[in-house]
Amino acid sequence: MGTVTGGVRKLRFAASGRGKRGGARIIYDYLDDTMPLYALLAYAKNDQGDLTPDEKRAVSGMAAAIKATRKGTR
Asked: Which pTM does this prediction carry?
């Protein structure tokens, strides 16, 4: 697990029988126990490497929008 940007995190896991490059990544946002976990992106490791700066800005914007929406519902 690692931080991507703006509180968004990356989870890596191996896909059974696919070798080191056959794993997958899930980019998600989780603030605390008062809100659900939001999966923002999911992709195979061999399809894409690290997120580009534009992709990082996009997921950071998604996370900010989710948090703003959640604040309005409390």
From this structure: 0.74
Residues 25 and 15: beta-carbon distance below 8 Å? no
- SS3 assignment, position 9: strand
Which three-class secondary structure state does DSSP give residue 40? Answer: strand
Q: Which residue type occupies 67?
A: K
- CB-based contacts of 25, cutoff 8 Å, min separation 6: 10, 11, 12, 41, 42, 43, 44, 45, 48
Give residue 19's region: left, alpha or beta (phi > 0; psi -120 to 50). Answer: left
Q: Is 72 left (phi over 0), alpha (psi -120 to 50) or beta?
A: alpha
pLDDT per 10-residue tile (average), the chain, 74 residues:
73 75 85 84 83 90 87 63
